[in-house]
Amino acid sequence: MTIEQRPSLSIALPKSYLFTSESVTEGHPDKMCE
């Protein structure tokens, strides 16, 4: 649910966590590794 509400939690969640979540959604495992 948290990741589903990215539009709102994106600002509340840390940049690192948000970036990782977005990477997974985009389909870029490379970024997730970072």
Could you explain the architecture of this structure?
- The chain is mostly helical.
- The chain has one domain.
- The protein is built from 3 helices and no strands.
- The longest helix has 12 residues.
- The termini are far apart.
- The model has no long low-confidence stretch (mean pLDDT 57).
Question: Characteristics of this structure?
Answer:
single chain; 34 residues; mainly alpha; 3 helices; 0% strand
The description of the largest β-sheet is:
none
**In sequence order, what are the helices and strands, one letter per element?**
HHH
The outline comes out as: globular
Task: Find the structural class using helix and strand composition.
Answer: mainly alpha
Helix content: over 70%
- β-strand amount: under 5%
Q: What's the N-to-C terminus distance?
A: 24 Å
Query: If you compute it from the alpha carbons, what radius of gyration comes out, rounded to the nearest whole angstrom?
Result: 9 Å
Could you say how many structural domains there are in total? 1
**Whole-number mean pLDDT:** 57
How many H/I helical runs?
A: 3
Number of strands: 0
Low-confidence runs of at least 5 consecutive residues: none
GO molecular function: metal ion binding; methionine adenosyltransferase activity
InterPro entries: S-AdoMet_synthetase_sfam
Keywords: Metal-binding
